[in-house]
Amino acid sequence: ANWAENHIALVTGATSGFGQAVALRLLAGGARVIATGRRRERLAELAAEAGTDRLLTIELDVTEKDCGEKLLAALPDDFAGIDILFNNAGLALGLGPAHTADLDEWETMIETNISGVVRIARAVLPGMVERGRGHVINVSSVAATYPYPGGNVYGGTKAFVRQFSLGLRADLLGTPIKVTSLEPGACETEFSQVRFGGDKDKAAAVYAGMKPLSADDVAQTVEAVLRLPEHLNVNTIEIMPVAQAFSPFAMARK
Ligand code: NDP
Ligand code: 8X3
Predict the structure, then answer these.
(1) What stretch or stretches form a coiled coil here (predicted)?
(2) Tens digits of per-residue pLDDT, 110-169?
């Protein structure tokens, strides 16, 4: 039961979805967890639900350039030696074609999913290398590999996360630090509500009539990856609901 005892985990985007589920699983496994996100009231709810002083909640917006250093500077000693990073804060905005998309939405995705992931990784990695201990799990997506209409910049950001993760492995060779690119398919969280600007019906329609992954399915996968032997690195892990698969190429026919 105490598989995560003696670990200190930083989870970004812990106010909802995968991040919240992973934070709860890590806590259940005995870890100390730093749970972060922008929504203060959600962090308070998580703290109330967890009911343990092994949880530290900190408001953090990954679109702020110095968020990584600021976070590390704010950590009390008993949360300072982060050895698990669940680098997860991210979002999709819109599902329209590129030529009508909102440039501000594109830039927000790039700032959050690319710059945010990079900022947190850059802040946390030196300590992991110094202590000779750590596992970074960056949250990519099936959208990194398989393009779909309207996925344009979102898919591009997730392809970045995948390739960045593989590049980190190259740089960290010779250290015991692990890096994994986690690439899930359709999972019912607040993801589609955010993508569709809060339209709950449109979000629900994405998962209608099929069984999507749950946030805890993803957290269970993360736990499994974290529990593998020290000498084994999962470079990438792609998961989908059984009810999701691939399509033939689309053709524009006359
Ligand atoms: P949710 O919308 O449920 O959760 C997203 C989390 O990211 C929230 O906790 C949110 O917190 C946080 N977040 C967003 N923007 C920022 C920011 N600027 N600074 C800090 N935190 C931020 O969606 P998911 O749990 O589904 O998404 C988590 C990750 O998984 C994302 O990277 C997403 O792209 C990816 N993903 C999702 C899939 C799915 O089908 N659901 C499949 C594959 C990948 P707050 O708003 O409080 O800041
Ligand atoms: C989220 C999954 O298929 O909506 O990354 O892009 S998908």
Answers:
(1) none
(2) 999 999 999 999 999 999 999 999 999 999 999 999 999 999 999 999 999 999 999 999
CA distance 197 to 205: 14
Distance CA 58, CA 65 (A): 16
| Tokens read off for 172 | 């960290």
Of ligand 1's atoms, which has the minimum distance to the CA of residue 62?
A: 19
* Spatial distance between the Cα atoms of 134 and 127, rounded to a whole number of angstroms: 9
CA–CA gap between residue 171 and residue 168 (Å, rounded) = 5
Please give the DSSP secondary-structure letter assigned to residue 65: T
Q: Which of 225, 217, 210, 239 is nearest to 85 (CA)?
A: 225
Separation CA 181–CA 193 (nearest Å): 24
Q: Domain 8-238 sits in which CATH superfamily?
A: NAD(P)-binding Rossmann-like Domain (3.40.50.720)
Check if 154 is active-site.
yes
Query: Ligand 2 atom 4: the closest Cα is on which residue?
Result: 186
Model-wide pTM > 0.95: yes
Is the beta carbon of 206 within 6 A of some atom in ligand 1? no
- Only one residue has tokens 């850059």, namely 122
Backbone angles phi, psi at 238, to 5 degrees: -110, 125
Atom of ligand 2 nearest to the CA of 143: 6
By the 10 Å C-beta count (0-12 exposed, 13-18 middle, 19+ buried), 58 is classed as middle
For the chain, what are the domain ranges?
Answer: 8-238
| Nearest residue by C-alpha to atom 6 in ligand 2 | 143
